[in-house]
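Worked example 2:
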Amino acid sequence: MTASRPPLSLATKLLYAVGAVANAVKLRGLSTFLMLFYNQVVGLPPQTVTFVLMVALVFDAIVDPLVGQVSDNFKSRLGRRHPFMYAAAIPVSVAFFLLWNPPAGLSDGQMVAYLLACLLTVRLFDTFFELPHSTLAPELAKDYDERTKLISLRMLFAVIGGLGMTVMAYQVFLKENPDGTGGVLARDGYFAYSLTAALLIFGCILLSTAGTQNQIPYLRQAPTRKITFKAMAREVAATLNNRAFVIATITGMFVAIATGARNALEIYFGLYFWELTQTQLAGLVTVSVLGAAVGVVAAPQVARRLGKKHGAILMFASALLVGVSPVVARLFGIMPPNGTGLLYGLLVVETVINTALAGGTGVLLVSLVADVIEDAEVKTGRRSEGLLMSADNLFKKLVSGVGVFISGSVLAIIAFPKNAQRGQVDPEIIHNMGLIYLPVIGVLFGLGIVSLSFFNIDKAKHEDNLARLAAAGRAEPPEPEPPAPDTAPSTPPHPFKA
């Protein structure tokens, strides 16, 4: 039995949210620079790099539910989640640093083994922190709208941390010199980048873990029981046999495939399709911080007005249309030429709008998955945040490897050259890259939107679930909302650009 929870203080909310920076820095580094680094800088073939990335994602997907189930049932004086979070700090930080600093003189086979070892370590210990950390949100905030606000704050820190570190990479650590030397294709800058990122990851993990430790007395404790592997397997199957969870997972799978392909190709589009300088790329990342921040701040209001599902569908579809529009316009020959101020201005506008819509969509999708937790508890009698969150991640990561593999296949199919220089790649190759990119992204994101339309937990059902749990003595009842002023109107019932 947990103690009666006092209201969450602003300090606790901020300390919880800062933990998202660690995962965001890691994810942005892997998605933005890793393919380019090991392909164009180190010299491995793109198919080889994407294969290793896919293997690491499959490994990560398998580990996730194991960590989730173990943490759901882990007993210690630090509760179920915090021991894993503390254990992650050093290994994930060291492995991330080593990932960008492979020893000189390795053969291709040895380099592949080194890359795989570093990635597996990063993925494993990132799961030790990220999964328990993300499962804290449903316990810290049970109210339908308050939960969205907390997740929004967490994603705001993720946006600022991940994209902010990317701007620093472009403008400081991997800065391109006026004579064209340096930049993301020069190996030297990756040492300072990886060291700074590793220290930031380490610091944010410790700060957030220590900052939420005072909440342990109010968190659900692990059940006191002995359970066999067979019984645990039955519990897992019963918990995951939930319509809302299945729909949310299918939606996430389509999004993950498309996002995996898009993220790996993003820097190729920036450097070679649009022929942007690194200063311009940094500028786009900077304005994307503003756009995404607007989106995650607006998401709770959108959810309050439209409901989480309908708000997510609206923002999701809008983000997709806005995100692909520049590539469509270029293929039809109606975009300004590369190198012009007008082109860059249009890309800035598109980036702000797109990232605002995408950021808001991300908040609502995460919040929808969190609402499945009480629905599953009503049906099974067990609280399984770790299992549900990890299983959701499992399916996303399994198929996101497919997206990464697609990106490598695209580069291989169009015969993208090694040591490519901006403005010197065959225009036909660039045209084909955009031509293949559009249907892949459009179909996959479109299927995700269709799947999301079948999600069946709204605010009324969530509050009914809380009431049922409260009646059974397993949860606190939902807090009543303050009455609206008489003059207030009545309330109606991750990643899209190249």
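The mean pLDDT is 81. The first helix runs from residue 10 to 18.
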